[in-house]
Design a protein that fits this description.
The chain is mainly alpha-helical. It contains 15 helices and no strands. Helix 9 packs parallel to helix 14 and helix 10 packs across helix 11.
C-alpha cells in the first residue's frame, strides 16, 4: 500500500504542471496516429510486394538515418533550443503525411514512394526523438525526471496498444488511406501547442566547433564503463531482438493466419507489456536497483522471443510478446533513465543522441538482416537466431552488473 501511494503521489506531482499535462495528452494523440500509420504502411508494403525482404528493407531504410544522424542530433539538441527543434521536426512530419495521403488517394503510390517517404521521416525522427527526450527536464522538476521518463515511455507504448489495434480494424473495414488521414489530424494539436507554449529555455552558448562538441560526448561515454555498457546493451537488443517487428506481417499472415486484425492485436500485446513495464518503472522513487532489473530482463526477453519465434498458437505468441514488451521497456526506458541520471546537464543532449543512435540506429541493420534471413530461411529461424545472440549478451551483462552498479554509484554521487 505505501508503494502504491508513492506512485500516485509521483504521478499527481507531474500532472500538477499544466504544460507537462497538456504536452502529455497531445503527444499521446500524436503517437497513436503515428502507430496507426506505421501499421498501415507495413500492411500496404506487404500487400504491394508480398516480399519479406522488401518489408525488412523498408524498415532498414527508414531507420538507417538514426544511425547516421543521431550523434549530430545530440549536438543540435545541446546547441539550439529544444522547442525550436521540435517545432521544425513536427511540421516536417506533418508534411510527410500530407504527401503520403495524396499519393494514396490519387492511386499513384508504389513501393518506391513508400521507401522514399520512409527515409524522409527517418531523417526527421533522428532529430525529433533526441530533442523530445532532452525536452522533458524543461517540463518537470528535477525530482520528477525519473518518473517523467518512464511515463513518456509508457505513453509511447500505450500508443502501440491503441494505434495498431485501431489500424487493423480500419484497414479491414475501410483502407490504409483512412489511417493516413487520422495520423495527419493527430499532428495538428501538438504543432499548435509547441508553437504557442512559453519559452523557458535559457540562452545557449554554442561551442566554436560542432566536431569538438561531439568529441566531448564521445570521451564521456568511453571513459565511463556503465554508460558505455548500457549503450551497447540497448544497441544489441535493438539490432538482434526488436527487429522481429519489421517482419510481423509474415507471422500474422503466413504462420498464425490471423490477417490484419491479428497483426494489430499482436503488436498491441507487445505494447501492453511495455506499458506495464513503464508503470513499474514510474512506481519507483529511487534510481538504485534499476540496473539489476535490466539484467534480469536481458535474459527473460530472449527466452520469450524464442518461444514466439516457433509458436504456432496465436494465444501463446500473444502472451510471449506481452512479456517481451515488458522486458524491452525495462531495458530501454531503464537505460534511458540511468543514462540521463549519470550524465552532466551540459552533455545530456549528446548522450541522448548516442542512446537514440543505439536504440533507433541499430534497428535498421537488424531489420535488413532479419528480412534477408526470413527470405532465405524462414521467419522463425531469423527471429530465433537474434534471440540466441541476445541471450548470450544478456548472460554476460548479468555477470558484470555488480561491478557496473558500483561504478554507477560514483557517477550518481558526483552529479549530485
Amino acid at each position: 500500500m505505501p508503494e502504491k501511494n508513492v506512485y500516485f503521489k509521483n504521478i499527481s506531482r507531474l500532472f500538477q504542471h499544466e504544460i507537462y499535462r497538456t504536452y502529455f495528452v497531445y503527444q499521446l494523440f500524436s503517437y497513436v496516429g503515428t502507430w496507426i500509420q506505421s501499421t498501415a504502411m507495413s500492411w500496404l508494403i506487404y500487400k504491394l510486394t508480398n516480399s519479406a525482404f522488401f518489408l525488412g528493407f523498408v524498415g532498414f531504410a527508414g531507420s538507417l538515418p538514426a544511425l547516421l544522424f543521431a550523434p549530430l542530433s545530440g549536438v543540435i539538441s545541446d546547441q539550439f533550443k529544444k522547442r525550436e527543434v521540435l517545432l521544425i521536426t513536427q511540421i516536417l512530419c506533418l508534411l510527410q503525411v500530407v504527401i503520403l495521403s495524396i499519393l494514396y488517394f490519387t492511386h499513384l503510390i508504389n513501393k518506391w514512394h513508400i521507401l522514399f517517404l520512409a527515409v524522409f521521416i527517418g531523417v526527421v525522427n533522428s532529430f525529433d526523438v533526441t530533442a523530445r527526450l532532452a525536452f522533458i527536464p524543461f517540463l518537470v522538476s528535477r525530482n520528477g525526471l525519473i518518473n517523467a521518463i518512464a511515463l513518456n515511455s509508457s505513453m509511447f507504448n500505450a500508443a502501440r496498444i491503441i494505434g495498431p489495434s485501431i489500424a487493423g480494424i480500419l484497414i479491414a473495414s475501410f483502407n490504409e488511406g483512412f489511417c493516413f488521414l487520422i495520423n495527419l489530424v493527430s499532428y495538428l494539436p501538438i504543432v499548435f501547442f509547441i508553437n504557442r507554449m512559453p519559452d523557458n529555455e535559457q540562452p545557449i552558448k554554442r561551442s566554436i566547433s560542432p566536431l569538438f562538441h561531439l568529441n566531448e560526448g564521445v570521451k564521456f561515454v568511453l571513459s565511463n564503463p556503465p554508460v558505455k555498457m548500457l549503450l551497447i546493451l540497448v544497441g544489441v537488443f535493438s539490432f538482434f531482438g526488436m527487429s522481429y517487428a519489421s517482419i510481423m506481417p509474415i507471422f500474422s499472415d503466413q504462420i498464425l493466419h490471423s490477417g490484419a486484425k491479428g497483426l494489430g492485436y499482436l503488436m498491441g500485446c507487445s505494447g501492453i507489456g511495455a506499458v506495464c513495464g513503464g508503470i513499474y518503472l514510474a512506481n519507483r522513487s529511487v534510481i538504485y536497483g534499476v540496473k539489476k532489473m535490466i539484467a534480469f530482463c536481458s535474459v527473460l526477453f530472449p527466452l520469450c522471443l524464442l518461444v514466439f519465434s516457433f509458436s504456432k498458437s496465436f494465444y501463446l505468441s500473444a502472451f510471449s510478446l506481452l512479456i517481451t514488451g515488458f522486458c524491452f521497456m525495462i531495458i530501454n526506458a531503464g537505460s534511458n533513465t540511468l543514462l540521463q541520471s549519470m550524465s552532466p546537464d551540459s552533455l545530456r543532449g549528446r548522450i541522448i543522441g548516442f542512446y537514440s543512435m543505439m536504440f533507433m540506429g541499430m534497428f535498421p541493420l537488424g531489420s535488413l538482416t532479419v528480412g534477408f534471413l526470413a527470405h532465405n530461411f524462414g521467419a522463425p529461424i531469423a527471429v530465433s537466431a537474434g534471440a540466441i545472440i541476445c541471450l548470450i549478451f544478456g548472460l554476460y551483462f548479468c555477470l558484470i552488473e555488480p561491478k557496473l552498479s558500483k561504478e554507477s554509484k560514483i557517477l550518481f554521487e558526483a552529479k549530485a
